[in-house]
Amino acid sequence: MKVLGARRWWAVGALVLAVLAVGFDVTILSLALPALATGLHASTSELQWFVAAYTLVFAAAMIPGGMLGDRFGRRKLLLIALVIFGGSSLAAAYAPSAGAFVAARAVLGLGGAVILPMVLGVVPTLFSPTERRRAIAIVMAATMLGYPVGPILGGWLLGHFWWGSVFLINVPVVILALLAVVAWLPESRDTRPRRLDVPGVLTSSAGLAALTYGVIQAGQYGWGDLTAAGPLLGGAVLTGCFVAWERRASEPLVDLTLFRTAAFTVGTLLSTAVSFVMFGVLFAVPQYYQAVLGTDPMGGGVRLLPMIGGILAGAVVADRFAVRMGARAVAGLGFVLLAGALLAGATTSVGSGYAPTAAWITVAGLGLGFVLPVAMDAAIGTLREEAGGVGSALIQAVRMVGGSFGAAILGSALNAGYRGHLDLTGLPPAAGHAVREGVYGGLEVARRTGSAALAGNVRAAFVHGMDVLLLMSAGLAVLGALLALFLPSRPAEVGAGRSERPESEHEAAV
Fold first, then answer.
1. pLDDT tens per residue, range 255-275
2. DSSP string, 165-187
3. Residue 491 and residue 60: Cα distance in Å, rounded?
4. What does the DSSP 8-state code read for residue 225?
5. What CA dihedral angle connects 352, 357, 360 and 366, to 10 degrees?
6. What gap in Å lies between CA 250 and CA 273, rounded to an integer?
7. By the 8 A CB rule, do 461 and 333 touch?
8. Domains of the chain
9. DSSP state of 2
10. Whether the Cβ atoms of residue 461 and residue 418 lie closer than 8 Å to each other
11. 8 Å CB contact between 380 and 498
């Protein structure tokens, strides 16, 4: 069922509001952690679970959430997920204890896990292949917008109100999204729902949760630690069991034959590579702004806006270029721009200042704007309309795991580069340990000891680690450009896996 006229673009507005709520939450929590530690008397372990509770539930619920949307109606599930997301945001804002906050974050993850697959699952039912890429670009840009806007709003709220106020940002956005979805978004579902694949649901949820937990632990304790290696191994085994079951199930949860389609496989891999690189950049650059340039979190958010501008400009230009040049050329050009920008970023020094960084993150945003809509359109365009929810959930799950591995691997590279360039001569063991833990700990030790030389060394070491991270990211972008050569070029090829129905008798005649 396609929606005719301008209403389908109003429906995209509803989808944008839905993903904005999720996007804000990604960056706001990290901004609020110091205030949460004080306000809820939270230990270091509890602070870690503030982050992990959301991430683990998000990973476990994504594919089942997509399946439920296909079965019972994507609009209905999106409305339920928005209510859950808004209600748990309120619960987090007024949580009386650390345990209550962890519980609220877990329920928040459940809502977010359903929102994203529903949003992308609905797009193919609203648009023809020629317009779908533009709609995806708008939704993806809205997702990215949460990264800088979250710290800007959150920083202002933390400066004027109590810690819970930052979680209330979601509430008005959710209310607007609910009204917009009710008003403009039509219902869509699988008209021939299949039998519930219980083994598929259990193995996919447990496997994704275990992999995600293993990556979280690896980022904190190293890849060889048992708390990381055990979940990673268990997650890999469960994922293997999921694949084996799905290949023999009569009515599988996920259609694995999608991976035989070049558009789906290459599009998913390209969008995952983008997530890998993007998480690394968004992990390092805000820290550079605050630790080296001396901005506060709100100022760091403002300084990320050129990247968002680049993404928006790239998405607009890419849509026009793709019609003339084909998806393959546009994706390849986007990765070339991304690689060039990251190589420029890898030359950053302590004295570089903001202007060069603003220039290269703008070009990086332009490259992201070229690649992401084209890659996502290639993958989503192969999905059957009746399985759009679970299919888009599969794409998002692969992207999320790839992004998590990216954040952990690139974060480890940054830390190794940072620690390798520290000069801890003359420092007591406890102070040296604090400096090695991270740039903020190092600057705090320098402040307490009044050592300008140590502060300069800590900043220089961090910038070196960031340069290593950006150089690795540039290498991955080069690989992405090579992989883009295998992407089907023309729009006709990209939509070939889906069953298209004419929008009207007039369009069928045309």
1. 788 788 888 888 888 988 888
2. GGGGGHHHHHHHHHHHHHHHPPP
3. 33
4. S
5. -170
6. 32
7. no
8. 1-189 (1.20.1250.20), 260-498 (1.20.1250.20)
9. P
10. yes
11. no
pLDDT bracket for residue 160 (50, 70, 90): confident
Unique residue bearing structure tokens 């945001």: 89
Q: Measuring CA to CA, how many Å separate 15 from each of 75, 317, 354?
A: 10, 22, 34
pTM: 0.80
Cα angle at 403 between 216 and 322, to 5 degrees?
A: 175
Task: Report the run of H or E that residue 4 belongs to, with start and end.
Answer: none
Give the residue among 286, 282, 288, 279 at the shortest CA–CA distance from 302: 286
SS3 223: coil
Give the angle 491-494-499 at the CA atoms, nearest 5°.
110
Q: Output DSSP code: residue 485.
A: G
Report the alpha-carbon angle 263-268-270, nearest 5.
95
* DSSP secondary structure code for residue 451 in this structure: -
Q: What is the pLDDT of residues 182-212, one digit of tens each?
A: 888 777 776 676 677 888 889 988 998 898 8
pLDDT range class, residue 380, cuts 50, 70, 90: confident
Q: Which two tokens stand for residue 73?
A: 């109606």
**Type of residue at 56:** L
Q: What is the mean pLDDT of the chain?
A: 82
Crossing angle for the helix pair 7-39 and 129-160, nearest 10 degrees? Answer: 30
